[in-house]
Amino acid sequence: MDAVLDQFFNLQIMIDAWPIIWRGLLMTLLLCVIVIPLGLVGGLAVALLGTVRSKPVRWAVIGFVDLFRAVPPLVLLIFVYAGLPFAGLQLSPLAAVSIAFLLNNSAYYGEIYRAGIESIGAGQAEAARSTGLNAFQTMAYVVLPQAIRNVLPDLVSNTVEIVKLTSLASVVALPELLYSADMARSVTYNTSPIVMAAGIYLLMLWPVVRLLSRLEHRMGH
Fold first, then answer.
1. Who has the most CB within 10 Å: 16, 78, 186, 193?
2. Locate the ABC transmembrane type-1 domain: which residues (predicted)?
């Protein structure tokens, strides 16, 4: 038992590793601040483009969504970071992660927004147009607020997944939380920094998961 505690819950190693873990946590938070808004805005753009009447545009949106939902995020990240330099585009790890996550998250958020928009009856849009609102105003003031409210639990759930996906940035040597914890593990030959990082993820995401449960409960009633 003592050996297990020493290997996984060594308090002194956790204290010694805290500075590098803290820097990794800050990088993870920076990633979240960048990729979550990008995904939300990109997904909204995808959903709105999917509502236009032009068939080529709609087919392009379908192709975009299917492609980036089908390609694993890790494969996409490696392609952006290691593949684009062969085309003459050299990206920093942070830029590569941001672009890869933008493409992936826009596809998922776009489908969530689309479901929300389709949940609003056409009669509401027609009623709004009859009051003198144009198509943009109808979408912005009538359809979207109701659509987002209808799919809010799904939006929050997808955002939780994005926070967890930031750990993939470790494969391109971006010093986020998991990468920093693994560096500390490789120096100390002890798993306690990884356990510490897992605890930090839990502390960050557990309140959001509880909020999601409350939202789903309220939406169900």
1. 193
2. 25-213
Residue 156: CATH number of its domain: 1.10.3720.10
Q: DSSP class of residue 59?
A: H
Residue pair 101/165 in contact by the 8 Å Cβ criterion = yes
Q: How many structural domains compose the chain?
A: 1
Is 21 strand, coil or helix? Answer: helix
Q: What kind and span of H or E run contains 69? A: helix 55-70
Residue 7 pLDDT level (bands cut at 50, 70, 90): confident
Distance (Å, whole) CA 174 – CA 31: 10
**Whole-angstrom distance, CA of residue 100 vs CA of residue 50:** 21
Write out the two tokens for 206: 């557990």
Q: To 10 degrees, the CA torsion angle through 34, 162, 116, 210?
A: -110
DSSP 123: H
pLDDT score for 219: 65
Q: Which domain holds residue 179?
A: 2-220
Helix (H, G, I), strand (E, B) or coil at 151: coil
Question: Can you tell me the distance from the alpha carbon of 217 to that of 221, in angstroms, rounded to the nearest whole number?
Answer: 7
